[in-house]
Design brief:
mainly beta, Sulfite Oxidase, Chain A, domain 2, Immunoglobulin-like, 5-stranded mixed β-sheet, 5-stranded antiparallel β-sheet, 24 strands, 31% strand, binds the ligand Nc1nc2c(c(=O)[nH]1)N[C@H]1C(S)=C(S)[C@@H](COP(=O)(O)O)O[C@H]1N2, binds molybdenum atom
Length: 406
């Protein structure tokens, strides 16, 4: 139900009940007006989030985690960042939900109910890292417009669903298929029903990977509304914008998908490096594919105070887009020297990897711990901000935390 409809259907008396006082000039309230009291929902309650989550925007809702909230091996819903481009759909009914596969390059256009998808195709479960392309944006200078994510727009949950590949094989795809694009039921901020807030996708090779899922469960239960209930595309290792929430249609395209936020500077970066603040022509921008190698120290919380005799057992996660992380190093002397941390293998491809180390400090005082991951192709994280780009994507600089030794 749309907000407006809600107000229309809410008698003034029940609105008064909600407020706990009569609506004195209620009869003068404009039709279709949405009372302020109903606009200000408590995001922590609304989304069952940890109280320390940080709200960056409420229209649309964008909420990030702090590094220490991401210490769990598998991110729980209460600590998972929320990134919306439009208005979250309301009144979702999983029992009537369907997914249509269409597009220029589909052989037999078909609509599956959610039940059919679940019954017809084998289920798979993977832990998948999802990082927003704009994670780390807040550090760019000159600043980039958009949500000022610091480090918390990343998660690794356990997703269960059917393989997109199995569904695409069922409908059949033509040889000229190059891309898939998703369509979803969230609505544009303008309220224009003909505009989609976002409709992105991935090349057909990525769509056919084992781990690319049409997911209906997160962490063993129905996907929370805000994370894409009842059906979500999961395309790990790429900007999380490729993982469409609330999807009801997938188009098999004979060209690069041209939906909302595929063009211009959306989720695209200069094909060749540019100077800070430089203008870049559309044709010189390239779509972000695999995300760069990155890591996060999730324990302790930055600012921790420890005793000189104590050993500090740090922990964190590292990930590398389509690749694996081969090495994790840390420094306590501002990057002059580096030590190896223990690094676990990923549970499956595209899952983040946990690291740990036991650190002894040489004397009392202020220290920083910096973490640096290296991927299987030898790329590692820059110590400071990497290449500037107009929208502030792909900041994979080393994460640092402050420690005081007493
Ligand atoms: N339908 C739809 N899917 C979407 C979005 C959206 O706004 N609408 N946001 C995308 C972006 S930019 C990101 S980073 C992830 C965020 O997923 P989360 O909110 O579950 O953490 O969802 C992606 N899928
Ligand atoms: Mo994103």
């Amino acid at each position: 139900m749309k907000r407006r409809a809600f107000v229309k259907k809410t008698a003034l008396s029940s609105l008064a009940g909600l407020v706990g006082a009569p609506i004195v000039f209620g009869r003068k309230m404009p039709t279709n007006y949405f009372p302020v009291v109903l606009q200000d929902a408590d995001p922590y309650q609304l989304f069952r989030l940890d109280q320390e989550m940080v709200v960056l925007n409420n229209r649309p809702w964008n909420i990030e985690a702090k590094a220490h909230l991401l210490n769990e091996d598998i991110t729980s819903a209460e600590n998972m960042f929320i990134r919306n481009n439009g208005i979250i759909p309301k009144d979702i009914d999983a029992s009537t939900w369907s997914l249509t596969i269409d597009g220029e390059s589909v052989k037999r256009e078909k609509t599956f109910t959610l039940e059919e998808l679940k019954k017809r195709f084998k289920h798979y479960t993977y832990q998948i890292t999802l990082e927003c392309g704009g994670n780390g944006r807040s550090e760019f200078d000159p600043p980039a417009k958009g949500n000022q994510w610091t480090v918390g727009a990343v998660s690794c949950a356990q997703w269960t669903g059917v393989r997109l590949r199995d569904v695409l094989e069922d409908v059949g795809i033509e040889n000229d298929a190059v891309y898939i694009g998703y369509h979803a039921t969230d609505t544009h901020l303008s309220g224009d029903p003909n505009k989609e807030p976002i409709s992105r996708g991935v090349p057909i090779e990525k769509a056919l990977q084992d781990e690319t899922l049409l997911a209906f469960q997160m962490n063993g239960t129905d996907i929370p509304l805000v994370h894409g209930n009842p059906l979500r595309l999961i395309a790990g290792g790429w900007p999380a914008s490729a993982s469409g929430k609330w999807i009801n249609r997938i188009s098999v395209r004979d060209r690069v998908h041209d939906g909302a936020k595929m063009m211009g500077s959306s989720y695209r970066v200069p094909c060749k490096p540019v100077g800070p603040g430089e203008k870049v022509k559309d044709e010189d921008m390239c779509i972000i594919e695999s995300m760069p190698v990155k890591s996060l120290i999730t324990y302790p919380k930055s600012g921790a105070i420890i005793g000189l005799e104590d050993k500090l057992n740090i922990r964190g996660h590292a990930w590398a887009g389509e690749l694996e992380v081969s090495k994790l190093e840390y420094s306590i002397d501002f990057g002059s020297t580096w030590q190896r941390a223990n690094l676990d293998q990923p549970v499956n491809r595209l899952a983040w990897q946990h690291f740990s180390a036991s650190i002894e400090f040489p004397q009392r005082g202020y220290f920083e711990i910096w973490a640096k991951a290296t991927d299987t192709e030898g790329n590692n994280q820059p110590m400071v901000l990497p290449g500037w780009n107009p929208k502030g994507y792909l900041n994979n600089a080393c994460h640092r935390i402050a420690i005081k030794v007493e």
